[in-house]
């Protein structure tokens, strides 16, 4: 299928307010907290004609193989303050978010119920169950699983969802705020930050962080061609829902943008691009050759950088940060 690409020339001048500073303090107070590494990959810098390619490696974060606990655990912390007496956490997931919610529920002595579309791998489903969660597998899409999870919440249950819609935006904003720790750990001034996109929440966190500081790098968002809800929305000039199918980038297999992410990405993200399955798989292999474990959803950022290279204003002195969100 044709590659989709959207550019917003005014994005770097857009500004917003940062996430609360207490988010980082919360994470630093967790027993398993440690900043994740930023790996230099000279071979990729040479290939792409830039000064440095640095990979933010989220393959080990708070005892889990992905970055999602940063958002989920902060959101749970804040949401339980707002909703005392909660007994069960409910969510929908295409993998890592659901496991992070289930892990934190178990740590806090709460029950968890996770709704999963049947395109999610049995390995990922077993990992969620291993955290003590009740798992409901549905023969449907991620978007429909979110609807099912939201509809199931009653009484002392609480929905912890990483996508927002009108009427449900407080907890998703907590999740986005939680991701800010990842960017506060990055101690370089990049010229470009590349981030994967599902519903757009971590991309929202990226734009929020870098559009609320003196440093204003370009931001490139990357999503699967088979689930291109953000890029399609940007090209349409309004949020749209797209039909999704199976993709190796399972964590990005989302058909509808988050209502919170949409205005931030519309106004503050420089470039958005889609990538194909084989491009993501090649990126996984190339990062593995650099001793970085990255699944297709995380390695999509390298695939997207390659795909959008000619549309980006980069030089031989530029520093590029790729966000690799998960282990392989």
Automatic annotation (TrEMBL):
Protein's organism: Kribbella flavida (strain DSM 17836 / JCM 10339 / NBRC 14399)
GO biological process, any: alpha-amino acid metabolic process
Annotated ranges, domain Tryptophan synthase beta chain-like PALP: 33-325
Cofactor(s) required, per the database record: pyridoxal 5'-phosphate
Keyword vocabulary terms for this entry: Pyridoxal phosphate
PANTHER family for the chain: DIAMINOPROPIONATE AMMONIA-LYASE, PTHR42937
Name of the molecule in the record: Pyridoxal-5'-phosphate-dependent protein beta subunit
């Amino acid at each position: 299928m044709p590659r989709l690409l959207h550019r917003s020339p005014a994005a770097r001048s857009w500004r917003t307010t940062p996430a609360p500073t207490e988010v980082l303090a919360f994470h630093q107070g967790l027993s398993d907290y440690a900043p994740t590494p930023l790996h230099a990959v000279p071979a990729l810098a040479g290939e792409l004609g830039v000064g440095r390619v640095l990979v933010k490696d989220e393959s080990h974060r708070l005892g889990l193989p992905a970055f999602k606990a940063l958002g989920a655990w902060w959101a749970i912390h804040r949401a339980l303050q707002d909703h005392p007496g909660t007994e069960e956490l409910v969510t929908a997931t295409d993998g890592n978010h659901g496991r992070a919610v289930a892990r934190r529920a178990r740590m806090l002595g709460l029950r968890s119920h996770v709704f999963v579309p049947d395109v999610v791998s049995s390995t990922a489903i077993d990992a969620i169950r291993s955290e003590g969660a009740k798992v409901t597998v549905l023969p449907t899409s991620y978007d429909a699983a979110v609807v099912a999870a939201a509809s199931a919440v009653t009484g002392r249950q609480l929905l912890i969802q990483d996508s927002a819609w009108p009427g449900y935006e407080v907890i998703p904003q907590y999740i986005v705020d939680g991701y800010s720790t990842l960017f506060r750990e990055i101690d370089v001034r990049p010229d470009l930050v590349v981030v994967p996109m599902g519903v757009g929440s971590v991309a929202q966190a990226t734009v929020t962080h870098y559009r609320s500081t003196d440093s204003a790098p370009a931001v490139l968002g990357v999503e699967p061609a088979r689930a291109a809800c953000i890029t399609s929305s940007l090209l349409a000039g309004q949020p749209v829902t797209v039909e999704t199918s199976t993709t190796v980038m399972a964590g990005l297999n989302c058909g509808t943008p988050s209502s919170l992410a949409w205005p931030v990405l519309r106004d503050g993200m420089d470039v958005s691009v889609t990538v194909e399955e084989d491009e993501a798989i090649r990126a996984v292999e190339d990062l593995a050759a650099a001793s970085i474990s990255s699944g297709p959803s995380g390695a999509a950022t390298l695939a997207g950088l390659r795909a959008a290279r000619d549309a980006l204003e980069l030089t031989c002195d530029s520093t590029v940060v790729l966000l690799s969100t998960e282990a392989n």
